[in-house]
């Protein structure tokens, strides 16, 4: 048995005024686009969908939404995702020299910037303002960086893994999302 914890849902039928304003708000947007490719092939990544505001005024709500993807373990020889991003800068001169870059982990202030340390020296450099989507914010956490911001907590990733394995749950969750109900957790009983 499972229980869904939702925000924005109240039992009963919404008033026609509330229902109408929700409908009006959504008509200002174009349909959601298809989902992008996953940012990673394993280890947990992110995919996004975009929509366009059709109004000459500002539209209420977001024009982008994310979901987790590729939530399967990477093979042992795949290497660390943050380390791969640092290594990609090895062919770029910094202060006139080439460096072998090693990742810096667990920055409490900016976990989604790509900070790397030059091997054999104390030189630490921010090589990119943001890591690639799907990079873990911290080594011992399921939180991931999406568009330069640490988000998508443990419950969302676990929920995604859960409903990928159970198509009926996936269908139910898709229906709930289509009704503008925001899922904030799933509890197994």
UniProtKB/TrEMBL annotation:
GO cellular component terms given for this protein: extracellular matrix; extracellular region
Keyword Transmembrane: no
Name of the molecule in the record: ADAMTS-like 3
SMART domains recorded: TSP1 (SM00209)
UniProtKB keywords: Disulfide bond, Secreted
Database matches in Gene3D superfamilies: Thrombospondin type-1 (TSP1) repeat
Keyword Disulfide bond: yes
Highest taxon of the lineage: Eukaryota
Disulfide links within the chain: 38-69, 42-74, 53-59
Compartments, as annotated in UniProt: Secreted
